[in-house]
Amino acid sequence: MTSALLTRARAGDQDAFAELVDPYRRELHLHCYRLLGRLPDAEDAVQETLLAAWRGLPGFEGRSSVRGWLYRIATNRCLNAIRDAGRRPPLAPVPPFDAPEPTRHNEVPWVQPYPDVLLPESAYLRREQVELAFVEALQQLPPRQTAALVVCDVLGFPLAEAAVVLDTTSTALKGALQRARSTLRSPATRPPATQPPAHGSAGERSLSRRFAAAFVADDVEAVIALLTDDAWLAMPPAPHQYVGTAAIAGFLHASATWRDGRRYALLPTRANAQPAFGCYLDAAPAGLVVLTLDGDRIARVTRFMDDTLFPAFSLPRAFS
Questions:
Q1: DSSP conformation class of 190
Q2: Confidence at 304, pLDDT banded by 50, 70, 90
Q3: 66-85 and 39-56 helices, crossing angle to 10°
Q4: Given a cut of 60, is residue 1 above it in pLDDT?
Q5: Angle between helices 14-36 and 66-85 (to 10 degrees)
Q6: pLDDT for 56-97, tens place per residue?
Q7: Contacts for 25 with CB less than 8 Å, ≥ 6 apart
C-alpha cells in the first residue's frame, strides 16, 4: 500500500501524498512542539516539513520508513529554527499593579501550553512526556541533545534509525543522549515528580472544581489550602515565579486588591494532559490557567498571559 502511494505521489498525485503523510501529521506537530515549545512555531515547522517532503519525494528511495523520513525533515527544520531565531524571550508583560518581589525567574518564558485535542491518539503516549514541566525541561537542554532525547527516549526509535533521523553517527548520538539524560536528572533541570489523579477521575474533577470556585471568588485562603507546601505559581511570558504558599498568597492578595471587585470566570479545557481553564476578567480573555496536580493537592498553577491561545483551545473570545 505504501509503495503504491509513493509511486502515485512521485507522479504528482497530491491526494496520494496527503494519504501518505496524514497519519503522521499529529505526531509530527507534537514532536515540533516538544522541540520548540510554542504552538505557532510547531505549526510553521510542520508546514515546512510537509512542503520539503513533497519537494523531496524524488530523492526518497524508501530505505527508511516514511515515518522516519518525515521525522528527519521535521527535526532538521526545528533545529534550523532554533539556530536562526535563538532563544530570545518574548516581551514580558508589565504587571498592572505593584506585584510582590518574585521568588525566582522563569528560565524558559517562551513555552506555551499544548491543547489536548491536538494530541495524537496513541496507546504509547505517556502523560509525563507531554506535561508542561517536561517540555520546559527539554527547552533547557542544548537543541541537539533535546532532539536526541526525544527521538530515542520519547519516540522510541532504535539507535541506528535515530542516528539516521538526526543525521549523525550512533557513537555521537550515544554521547548526546547520555549528556541529555544526565542533565535532565540534575536537580536544576529535573521535572518535579508528581502523582496526579487519573485523567477524568472523580478526584481530578473535584480538585479542579474546588480550585475554580475558590479562584473566581477571590478566596485566597481556600486556594492556598488546595496547594502543596512547595507549590509554585508562574505567569509566562512574564518571568516571575512565586514558590511556596506564603509567596503565592501574597501575590493573589495583591491581584485581588488591584481588581477591586472585578471577578474572574473560568471555562474548563485541557492542556498538556492536565486540567486547564480559559480565564476571563469582566467577560474578556485574561489568560489560560493550567494545573499540575499531585495526589489530592495542586503542585503548580501556570497562568499563561497570552490571549492569542484561546482559538487553539476552542475557547470563546468573550464570556457570557
A1: S
A2: very high
A3: 130
A4: no
A5: 50
A6: 998 887 777 899 999 999 999 999 999 886 656 666 677 777
A7: 46, 50
Confirm if 251 and 242 have CB atoms less than 8 A apart. yes
Cell digits of residue 45:
515547522
Crossing angle for the helix pair 39-56 and 14-36, to the nearest 10 degrees: 140
Residues written for the chain: 320
Average pLDDT over residues 188-214: 90
Question: Which residue's C-alpha cell is 512565586?
Answer: 242
Q: DSSP code of 300?
A: E
For residue 115, give the DSSP letter.
Answer: B
Our CA dihedral for 189, 220, 195, 181, rounded to 10 degrees, sits at -10
Selected residue with higher pLDDT from 297 and 262? 297
Calpha distance 208→8 (Å, rounded): 50
Q: What are phi and psi of 288, to 5 degrees?
A: -125, 125
DSSP-assigned letters across all residues of 244-284 = SHHHHHHHHHHHHHHHTT--EEEEEEEETTEEEEEEEETTE
Which one-letter amino acid corresponds to residue 181?
A: R
What sign does the CA torsion over 196, 201, 207, 211 have? positive
What nine digits make up the cell of 155? Answer: 519516540
Which residue in 10, 14, 2, 45 sits closest to 27, CA to CA? 45
How do beta strands 297-304 and 284-294 pair?
Answer: antiparallel
Distance separating alpha carbons of residues 38 and 76, to the nearest angstrom? 17
Q: According to the model, what pLDDT value does residue 151 have?
A: 96
What are the structural domains, with CATH classification, of the chain? 2-92+142-180 (1.10.1740.10), 202-313 (3.10.450.50)
Please state whether the predicted TM-score (pTM) of the whole model is above 0.70.
yes
Cell, residue 101: 518581589
CA 281 – CA 216 distance, rounded (Å): 10
